[in-house]
Amino acid sequence: MKKVTYLFGMLAALLTLSSCNEGTDFDIDYTPIAPIGGQYDIIIYEGEDASKSDAEFWASVDVNDNSKVEQLCSYGEVYAYLSNTTDYDSDKAWLRIGGLSANKSFNINAKLSINMGDYTFTGVNVDNFAGNSAKSIGTVNVSGFCKHNGIKTEGSGTTTDYIEFIYSRSDYPGMHYKAVGFKYTGWPEDEE
User: Which of the four, 4, 32, 41, 107, has the lowest number of CB atoms within 10 Å?
Assistant: First the structure.
């Protein structure tokens, strides 16, 4: 009798488990700036010329010209973060360079206009909340773009997103900055 009870118990369990329905796959709700939003590993270059705009300056110099341009950091030292707004705007994004409490000359934290059709972003005289300050510490001008899956990293060979932008801060007149990099891969060899 125990064998029959055991057999019926196993049969009931088998029927119960076989009737489970996982349902359909869940649709993932992406943020409005997917797929390019996220953390970027960047190199920042700095140059000075009060007579030129950011675009004019960077069109006239090479980042490798040490007499006019200084490289401020290497990969793995400073990160840029391209993130959605709290309202999930499809035409706005936050761009932050550095940590939340960072306030060096190249740090920014600004809400920019973004075009998700061609992955470009811009901001003219937008408030800068660098250092995560509650009030603006000046304004920034930013112009840049991303390329989804636009670069293959040298170290790991990972295909990831590319980012490039130029910018300036009103509280550092005449200084021009350029950032280039790739979406953070997590591979240490990409930061060498």
Answer: 4
